[in-house]
Design a protein that fits this description.
Length: 263
């Protein structure tokens, strides 16, 4: 008894803050027979999920190990500081890291920023997760720097945020193991890059310009060439510079003079 072959499917991992709904909708329209499974993973765990083969591709936060993964950078998010709504920072439209130098800033263990030297005053502890840090901000204990999408994801009515103009941004990319670039991965790359359903990504699809051009019906008929005019002697008449035919024999036309007067 032979084992049955598993139906094809596509597993897409994504980190918090990324909304894959648009790409999932296009996938379902173009490949309705191949279901897509979404796998939400913490940003720090996304590379290991892909490396272990638990997902075919994923939306991750850069950087990734480019010796193992392929990655297509998609966009870089604005960094914001999350503050209580009654904080003095809410009086301005944006701030700088210098403005936050005297503020207590939380750096959770799942912080997506790779700080060489974290800004602000260190907190009494490092929260385990970004949602835990959000709760501490709401309690008025300190502030938090996050990508704007995470500030929206963990939004609370008693909190708001402001852009930090000189803070590093967090870049999001589509990534997958280089050695596992399957046809389905290529299909999803085409969707993310905005290719149309008729475009090609390397599969055998002839381009219109590569096909032989067919002549229109009116171009197929050959033009009937007019037979050359003949002289009186039956030989083709010579053509003049203006396209008029001269009389045969090559003789010059006789010039007629003025009539003589009779004496």
């Amino acid at each position: 008894m032979t084992g049955s072959q598993e139906s094809p499917s596509f597993r897409l991992a994504y980190v918090p803050g990324v909304t894959p709904a648009k790409w999932v909708r296009i996938w379902n329209e173009r490949l309705p027979g191949i279901p897509m499974t979404l796998v939400q993973v913490p940003a720090a765990e996304a590379p290991e999920v892909l490396r272990a083969g638990e997902a075919d591709a994923g939306f991750v936060r850069l950087p990734v190990d480019r010796t193992f993964f392929s990655a297509i950078p998609l966009y870089t998010e604005t960094t914001v500081v999350v503050v209580p709504k009654d904080h003095v920072i809410t009086a301005v439209d944006e701030v700088s890291l210098d403005d936050l130098a005297d503020e207590v800033l939380f750096h959770p263990l799942d912080d997506v920023f790779d700080w060489d030297s974290p800004p602000g005053e260190p907190a009494f502890e490092r929260p385990a997760t970004t949602p835990d840090a959000i709760e501490l901000v709401a309690a008025g204990v300190g502030l938090l720097l996050v990508p704007q999408s995470l500030a929206r994801l963990y939004h609370r009515r008693d909190l708001t945020y402001r852009p930090v103009v000189d803070a590093p941004g967090s870049s999001v990319a589509l990534s997958w193991p280089q050695e596992a670039t399957t046809d389905l991965v290529e299909d999803f790359i085409g969707i993310v890059r905005g290719r149309t359903v008729n475009s090609t990504r390397g599969r055998a699809t002839a381009k219109p310009e590569d096909e032989p051009r067919r002549k229109r019906p009116e171009q197929r008929a050959t033009r009937q060439q007019q037979p050359p005019a003949k002289s009186a002697g039956g030989k083709p008449a010579a053509r003049t510079a203006r396209g008029r035919t001269a009389s045969g024999g090559g003789a010059k036309p006789v010039k007629r003079g003025k009539p003589r007067r009779r004496s």
